[in-house]
Amino acid sequence: MTQRFLATLILISSLPLSAPAEERLPERLRERFWTQGEQVRNAFVPVIRNARRGTVEFLKETEPVALGAVIDGDGWILTKASQIGEADLVTLQDGRRVPFEYIGHDVKLDLALVRVNASRLTAVEWETEEPKLGAWVVTTGQKPEPLGIGVVSVPRRSIEKSSSYGVLGIALVDVSPDVAAIIESVFPNSGASRAGLEANDEVLSINSSQIAGRRDLIRTIHQYRPGDTVIVEVDRDGEKKSFSVTLTHPFGDFLSRIAFQQQLGGPLSFRRDDFEAVLQHDTVLRPEQCGGPAVNIDGKAIGINIARAGRTASYLLPADLILPKIEALKSGEFPPPIAPQSDADTGE
């Protein structure tokens, strides 16, 4: 495959590029610059032919929120945990949209393991040998063409935890800080708003940790980062309800993003720090394109794309870090963060 692939790239690079009409256009507007990216992506179609069959897409209703990698033909799928807090369906390679069961969540790696009621799925094939600096990295989607192509740009390294903390997106009633944590208002487009929290809800617990008052709630939430999902239990008119809330940045989506100049090429992943080990590549991905397999020139998965971290920086978790975690995730050693939901829970 490698020889055929290189021959295709050579052929592309030698295609005639001149035309009388085109020569009158500014260099950057000539037609070849519109098509070269597509031509290069098409050259990688044979590389991802098998891997894309093991790639699924997570949806919130009809909106894509993440990709996933099939690890077992009986319906086991790995993905980026902080991207699927609001997902409800998985699109399989054959086009079926099916619900999923959240099985496990490794907080340190931001990995989620889910299972769908489907069999004979195509699992990705892994490669645990670490790619060299400059090696090709190809991101698969569900279409025949790759979502993105890049190279390993920084050797394997750890990513430290940032100082940013997550917020619910609420204002609290101004009472004694140790009496109660009662919501005064919910900010639009916040995690709290999307989850269904309302004014006058009293927050009772966060991830089963009891909340004694306003100060305790603030201190507890500050232990989590933007992108983390927490279970918020509230008292609403005498009835206890639980909500899954994905935390956002303390300065809001807009201010948090313009504060990062590297983000000029598009939105960054909320969770893009505190990883034991990553390989950095220069593929430009959107957050919803993370969670799926990143493959080498032989079509084998060298890891899972785990974050869009900068203008030309994406992180993948290496395969040799992921594979030893799978059995523990299956066994329930790392329980999922999402509480069982019902119509009563969601306030519908």
TrEMBL record:
Enzyme class: hydrolase
EC number in record: 3.4.21.107
Name of a matching Pfam family: PDZ_2
Domain PDZ: 156-213
Highest taxon above the source species: Bacteria
SUPFAM superfamilies: PDZ domain-like, Trypsin-like serine proteases
Signal sequence bounds: 1-21
Annotated GO biological process: proteolysis
InterPro entries hit by this protein: PDZ, PDZ_sf, Peptidase_S1_PA, Peptidase_S1_PA_chymotrypsin
Keyword entries, A-Z: Hydrolase, Protease, Signal
GO molecular function: peptidase activity
Family: Belongs to the peptidase S1C family.
Protein's recorded name: Putative periplasmic serine endoprotease DegP-like
Annotated gene: mucD_3
